[in-house]
Amino acid sequence: MAGALLFWGWQTGQGVWGVLLAVLLEGARFVRARWEFSNSDLNRISDLCWALFVGTALLLYSMGEDRLLFVFNLAQWLPCCFFPLMLAQAYGNRATMPLTVFSWLLRRLPASPFARRSFNISFFYFALCLLAASASTHANSFFYPGITLLVALALTSARPRRVSLAAWLTLLLLVTTAGEFSHKELKSMQDSMERILGAWIADFFQPTQDPRELQTRIGFPGPIPQSGKIVLRVRPEPGGTMPTLLREATWDAYKKETWSASNNTSADVPMGSGDIVKLLPTNTFSREVEIARYYAGGSGMLVLPHGTFEIDDVPAEVKTNRLGVVTMENGPGLLDVRVLFGPDRSIDSPPCDRDLLVDEKEKPALAQVAAELKLAGMTDRQKIRAVERYFATNFTYTLDPPRNRDPMRDTWLSYFLLSTHTGHCEYFATATVLLLRQAGVSARYVTGFVVPDSARHGDTYLVRARHAHAWALAYNTDTGLWEQIDTTPPNWGKEEAEQPSWWESAEDALSNMYFQFSKWRWNKTSYARYTSWLLVPLILYLIGRIMLNQRRQRRASGKDDANRAPWPGLDSELYLINQQLAAAQLSRLPNEPLLSWQQRLELAFPDSARLRRIFHLHRSLRFDPHGLKKDDRETLRNEARRWLAEFTAQAAEKKQAEASGQLQAPG
Fold this sequence. Notes:
22 helices
C-alpha cells in the first residue's frame, strides 16, 4: 500500500502528499492501540470523504480548466479524498467495512442482507491509487514498469500454494512482456480510429465556423432548419438602446455560393490594465452593452456591434484582422464582456481592389439589374439607397425558396434576382454586396446575429440560433465610412418567431440555470470565490461529531473493556471443535471459506444434525450485529460440548480398534 501511494505521488507530482499518506498508513503496523469505531462513526467518516470529493471537484471545476483536464485532475486527487476511510480501517478495530458505509440507502434498510455484508477496502484503495497514478498527464517511461511491479507484488501476496514460485514468476514475466507490446499497439489502434472517425464525422456534421471560409445555404435543398437554442445574452446599459445587428465575421471573396476571406492574417491587440481591449480611440458619442456567450475551448470569434472601440473584462488573448473580425484565444468557456461602441468609425480596413471583385458567372444578372436601377452616374450614397429600395419593394422573405432553376442558364443568385425574388438573408446579403460592387461601391459580406424586440426578457435580450443573420457592409466615399446595409425584408423576424417549439420555455429555464452556474464557475459573480468555503463548516462538523462520539464511548465503556472480546464471536465454541479436529486432518484450512469447511465436515460426519446447528448458531454469534440471545448462546455451548464428547468417544473407540487389530496381526 505504501508503494502504491509513493508511486501515485511520484507520477502526479504530489510527492510530498504521497510520502505523508504512506507514513500515516503504514504507521498502523507499529501502533498497537486501536480505535473502536461504531457503524455511525464509519458513516460519518464516509460522509467526510464524499464531502472532500465534492469540494475538490468544485474547486477544480471553478478554476476554469478544460473539461477533459478537469476529469484527469480530479482523478489524481482521489487517494487524498478517500484516505480518511482507509485510515479508519488501518487504525480501527475492524478488518472490514460494512456496505452501509458506502450507501445511504442501506443505512435506512438495516434488515437487508446486503446491509450485513462487509469487505476489506484495502484492495479497492490500492486500485484507486493506481488509477489516480494513471491519470497523470505527463507521460514517462517508468509508469508501466512501476505499475507492473506493484500489481505483481499484490498478486504474489495472494499466490495459491498449489502454484510454485518459479511457475508464478514465469507467468508474470509472460504477462508483463505481452502487456508491454499490446498496450503500445492498442494506443496506435486508438489513434488510427480517432483519425478515421474524425474524418467520418466531419462529412456528416458541420464544423464550427471557420474564419477563412463560409459555405452559404444559397440553394440549400429544403427549408432552412431553425433552432431556439440561446447563443447570446445581451443587456444594454440602463436607459440605453440596443444595437440591432451584432457582427461576428466578415468576408470579401465570393465564388460558387461560398464566401471566403482573401487575407485572414490576424494581429495581436495590446491589452490595457484590467483586461481592457482598446480597438479604437474613445468615441465621444458612446453607448454600452453587455454580451455573454459560451466559447468551446475558450477560443472563437467575438460577437460585437459595429463601431466597437473598447471591450472590458476579456481575460484572453485578442486578435483582429483587416476585415474587422475580432478573435479570442486561451479564454474562459463563458465570456461576459462590457462593450463600448459608437457611430461612424470602425476597425475595418480601408477598401481595396478585392472589395470590388465580382464572379464572372454572376456579372450578366448583376449588370442587368444595375442597368434597370440606373446606378451609373449616382453617388455612392445614392447607389446604396437605390439598392435598399429595390429589395424592399420587389422582394419577399422565405426560409424555403423555390429550387426549379435551370442550372445551364442560371446560377442560384441570378435565379433569385431575375426570377423568384424571394429568399432568406444569405440571398439578400450576397446579392446586395455583389450588386454594389457591380456599381463600383466597395462592399463586404457580414455574418452575425440580429437582436429583435421579441428577444427581450426583462432587461436582457436572449439571442437564439435562429436569429443568425447576414447583411452587407458598404463603403461610402462621401463620408469615408463603412456602413451596415441590411436589405432583408423586415418581416423575416416574424416568420422565424412563428417557429419556436412548445418546449422552448422549459429549455430556456434550464439554459438560465446552467448560465447562472457557468457564471459562478468562471468567476463572473461576486460570491463565486467564497462558495467553496461553505464546505469548511460541514467538514469541521463531521470531524467534531467523530471525536465527540469517541469520547462518549470511552466514558461509557468503563472497566468492562478489559474483559470484552476485541471482535464479537471470537469466544465461539466452534474454535474448540476446530482445535480437536486438527489431529484428524479435518481442521479449517488457511483462507478456506466457512461454508466450504462446513460442507467438508458434513461429508465426514453425514449424520450429525448437531454440527449443522452449531454452525448456524456460530454465524449468528459471529456476524449478526444483534448477536445471540442468552438461551441461544447457552444452546451453542451445550451442543458443542456434546458434539466434542461424541467425537472424542468415537476417536477413542477407533484408536482402540486399531490397536486390537495390530495385536492380533502376528497370530
